[in-house]
Design goal:
The structure is a homotetramer. Chain A is mainly α. Chain A contains nine helices and no strands. Chains A and B meet through helix 1, helix 6, helix 7, helix 8 and helix 9 of A and helix 1, helix 6, helix 7, helix 8 and helix 9 of B. Chain C binds a DNA duplex through helix 3.
DNA sequence: TATGAATGAGATTTCATTCAT
DNA sequence: CATGAATGAAATCTCATTCAT
């Protein structure tokens, strides 16, 4: 409750950094800009982060953590896999296309080659974690006889691919004139498309 | 007969540029490097391209052109839509993950915000074109009664999302330790996942 | 009391800039040289002046301000116009041919086409102001019956032309072997030449 | 009569060079521009002129020659000095402010420090020659009793200063908004101003 | 802790000049 | 003679990073 002002300082910087990196990319961002946006002197930045790269990594790390689904039920019980999967797709789609998150994939993809640490981090914390969840859901559906037996790993890719495309669309193509899409609607349609491929044909 | 050297000059530069931009990204690439890679002086570069950005755009434009499916049959005749779609997914997946192409999406996504022209170009020439083709295939399947009636546009996104993920995977995550995937195999699985959602339930 | 160092920085640079621009002209001056002459790094220059041109303009502006006659009596009273004019010519001649000023006209004339702002500034602040003063003096003489009625504007040109020629002579021709002239003597002779054309013939 | 085409080539270049140097000054002029303006390749320029500086000097030299009063009567006979002086001032003023000549003083003054050869040339061929002529006229007037006895050299400076100011005015200040002056009218007024200073007071 | 001032090490871009054809 | 193509050698400007205060 009485958290001192220090952690706020750091948070302010990260917030400002997010905005500037978001708007300009890594190379295009100047420490000057971040400092000004955070209302600090450039030198003060360096008291908190030892380099531009460190700042960038800290900021992305923070965002990634915030993006991960906090709680996934340990046991799915009797909930139909279709329902769980729908919810998951909805959840991820909305989260990943939220204005303050959408640039994470862009940054990871765009700067991944220059920041292998970041790509590794993202891969192991987001992709792998997300795929594990999806895989569990798929297996759950297979065990319940809802889903036909497919390679769960491959299925994951189809599922995640659609979610990712939504984020890219919003971030990369909408600003240059692509027709805007409604994240929730797209998620629903994506779930439909995916589900009817996974469900046994006898279902219905 | 005796003038094939001239047009080569430009192509040499573009080739070298592709390699360097591929390895280092836009900001990380120095004109010096491109020049050296092309076996020319820096100044000679500027004889052909008026700026780093112009060079970059020319190179990406060239690659994009090369990546587009040259010829799609105007009329699908009686070929089953499932076959056509499978082929298309295969074709695009292989093309987009080929070592000399795979970085195009990365670059578009990563630098799109800094080069709106590029994003626009990519959107209208690749994405839109690709989606139109997929849409035609889907409609073809619906007319033939192969595919259940779904929103073709949304279906496109699921299809293309999976293809794109393949390229990103190879480019961004494999270099940092993600388990390598076989493009052809993934394409086949993606087609499966997608197809069984599109086919009418009566097909059994 | 303890902050006289700050305003010095800018002045140091301007002083150094004056010397280098004086010796080498605008195009011939490298920011490196100015920096070295000011005992600073090149980057420090850009902290104060956003471009070479800005530095140049600031420096010339400063010099011009310094060159202008600070105070001209608002009312000439009963002082003979001939005396006033003589003094003015002396004053301007000495000022304009002083070693640290003499290059101003050269620069304005030489680079005026490339820096219209500078030419405009010089025209409105120096030429126009100077001509206004001369005009007032001439009218004063006419009112007093000292000077015959001539077109004061045209007379100004003859007067100023001679003063300007002195500066040009010192700067452009003396360095290549023209016989050196004494600024004060030339000013006196010029005043003579001019005065006896303005004075009424009855004065004798 | 049957002068071959060769001298034309050279003349074309000099003409083009004059225009470009006129518009952009020495440093601002690129050999490319001159070549294009002359309708030649850059390399062809170098067949005629060994360097940019050589080209510049040749061009200025040519102009200066063209500017000099071709013929001054060896003996003034009984023509009144006032008339001769008036004519001379008119002649020089018109010549020096002609659009294709006016930039010569600007260039000499502006680039003189960087091209001492040029300044020397101009000084000895134009200034000195002009001053000699004026001096002869003044002495002629003194011998005839028209002019009072003044220092002829100093008088020359007043005379030439006014002429020079006209050229500078047209070239440097008119383009930035100074009120345009009529060369002939200014010359006449200048002659008046000067003459009435030189003539004996008894002349009436 | 905070900052204003400073800088080293480039980066892009330009241009006079050359040379093979 | 003429040229298209090439280049070496700068010059301006930028920016992450440091340091005295």
């Amino acid at each position: 409750m009485a958290r001192p002002t220090v952690p706020t300082r750091r948070a302010d910087i990260l917030l400002a950094a997010r905005d500037v990196f978001n708007a300009r990319g890594f190379a295009g961002t100047r420490m000057d800009d971040v400092a000004r946006a955070a209302g600090l002197s450039k030198a003060a930045l360096y008291l908190q982060f030892s380099s531009k790269q460190a700042l960038f990594e800290a900021m992305v790390g923070e965002l990634i953590e915030a993006m991960l689904p906090r709680a996934i039920p340990a046991d799915f019980g009797a909930t139909p896999a279709a329902v769980i999967l729908r919810n998951f797709i909805q959840f991820m789609s909305l989260r990943i296309t939220a204005p303050d998150m959408a640039f994470v994939p862009r940054v990871i993809i765009g700067e991944g080659a220059n920041f292998p640490e970041l790509a590794r981090f993202y891969h192991s914390h987001v992709i792998t974690r997300g795929m594990t969840i999806v895989e569990r859901i798929v297996r759950h559906g297979m065990e319940r006889g809802e889903f036909c037996s497919a390679d769960p790993i491959q299925a994951c890719r189809t599922i995640i691919g659609g979610v990712l495309l939504g984020a890219i669309w919003k971030n990369t193509f909408e600003p240059v004139g692509a027709e805007p899409i409604d994240a929730a609607a797209m998620a629903a349609a994506h779930a439909d498309a995916v589900l009817f491929g996974l469900m046994t044909r006898s279902a219905s």
